[in-house]
Design goal:
The structure is a single chain. With 263 residues, this protein is an alpha+beta fold. The protein has a domain of 175 residues. Helix content is 19%, strand content 41%. The strands form two sheets. Strands 1, 2, 3, 6, 7, 8, 9, 10, 11, 12, 13, 14 and 15 form a 13-stranded mixed β-sheet that branches. The radius of gyration is 20 Å and the shape is globular. The termini are far apart.
Length: 263
């Protein structure tokens, strides 16, 4: 009985600590992401600048337009509106080094969601191949993640076991990563030590905790019909106009048929 209570209270303590994430970011890695959202239009890739902020215990990966004080504006019906920047990618991926968890966070209208996954999502195979990338001595590794085969190049010269999006677990920073179809390609374009070190703090208890499947269903429901997702008493729309909006949103979604995660 004593052991039962000990493990119960230990679990509660860990859960509460995991909700409160704080650190000071020491480094910033900047990546260029070139990606193809529409598999029927491979000749027209998109690109976006992404930022990985690295602390002692936490890292945060997002579009540059969402990092720190920047707030995103909208493409299609994908997010909320601001005049500062434009992005397709509204998530922030947090990696908790101590607890070995990934927290995928996303705001939809006034709701903040997160789901968690183990940080060790990728099983890497080192090939022994090396080359120089952006002045760094890099080593090649391969993995399979969410329905895609990936090639990753990492450098032990930056002893941070992290990388873009949910990728990590190599003995050095990932400085280039791409799937074998080259539909998603991350390239390191900058790495710097931060001084002063910006503070980061978030408490996941204010988020809606869900799982990936339920989150994707919720996100799709919003993307299909933002007007019905959250009723706004100050907004009136006729059934005819509402129908046209839904048809327009459906056309947008048809062209976003190639997500990074297939499974």
């Amino acid at each position: 009985m004593k052991n039962t209570f000990f493990w119960f209270f230990t679990f509660i303590s860990i859960s509460l600590c995991a909700q409160n994430l704080k650190d000071n970011f020491q480094y910033k890695a900047t990546y260029k992401l070139t990606y193809i959202l529409d598999s029927t239009a491979t000749s027209f890739p998109k690109s976006e600048v992404m930022v990985l902020l690295i602390g002692e215990n936490i890292s945060a990966f997002s579009s540059r337009s969402k990092s720190l004080d920047n707030k995103p504006s909208v493409r299609g019906n994908s997010g909320h509106t601001s005049i500062n920047a434009v992005t397709d990618l509204h998530y922030i991926v947090l990696k908790d080094y101590k607890r070995d968890f990934i927290y995928y966070t996303r705001q939809i209208k006034e709701d903040f969601f997160y789901y968690e996954q183990p940080k060790s999502l990728c099983s890497w195979k080192l090939t022994g191949e090396t080359k120089t990338l952006n002045g760094y001595k890099a080593q090649k590794a391969t993995t399979i993640f969410s329905g895609r085969d990936y090639v990753g190049w990492f450098t032990p010269e930056v002893p941070v076991s992290d990388g873009p999006y949910k990728f990590s677990g190599l003995p050095g920073l990932i400085i280039e990563l791409y799937d074998t179809q080259n539909h998603y390609h991350f390239e390191l374009i900058g790495f710097e030590k931060l001084d002063p070190k910006p503070a980061f703090k978030t408490n996941l208890k204010y988020y809606i905790h869900t799982d990936r499947k339920t989150f994707l269903e919720t996100e799709l429901r919003y993307r299909r019909d933002p007007f019905s997702y959250q009723k706004n008493p100050n907004l009136t729309i006729s059934p005819e106009v509402h129908k046209k909006y839904i048809e327009s949103f459906a056309e947008i979604l048809e062209k976003e048929n190639n997500p990074l995660e297939r499974e």
